Amino acid sequence: MKVSKQVFGLIMSVTIGFIMSLLISLALLLVNLGFVDDFFFIWMQSFATSFLISVPIALVMFPLTQSLLLRIFQVQE
């Protein structure tokens, strides 16, 4: 499937936000609470909150970080 660089960047940011939110919310919940009753429900609430926060951050930080790193490093083609 062909997409523009802008659309790819959007897809990448949302995907990274999703995966990071899922895994970080799981890890923090396990560390702080362990396996408790209704673990899955609590995890999904935590994941939803972190996803709503992480995606906008990823949408802003991904291109800014890429731009900054491209100024510092020369990427070989």
Protein described:
The protein is mainly alpha-helical and 77 residues long. The protein has one domain (5-65). The protein is built from two helices and no strands. The chain has helices at residues 5-32, 39-72. Helix 1 crosses helix 2. The longest helix is centred in the C-terminal third of the chain and has 34 residues, at 39-72. It is elongated, with a radius of gyration of 16 Å. The two termini are 22 Å apart. The model has no long low-confidence stretch (mean pLDDT 87).
State Rg: 16 Å
Shape: elongated
Question: Portion of residues in helices?
Answer: over 70%
Distance between the termini: 22 Å
Count of helical segments? 2
Q: In terms of structural class, how would the helical and strand content be classed?
A: mainly alpha
Sequence stretches where pLDDT stays below 50 over 5 or more residues: none
Question: Beta-strand percentage?
Answer: under 5%
Number of strands: 0
The number of distinct structural domains comes to 1
Main sheet summary: none
Mean pLDDT: 87
Order of helices and strands: HH
Highlighted features:
77 residues, mainly alpha, 81% helix
Topology of this protein?
Blueprint: H1 5-32, H2 39-72
Helix pairs in contact: 1-2
In summary, what is this structure?
This protein is mainly α.
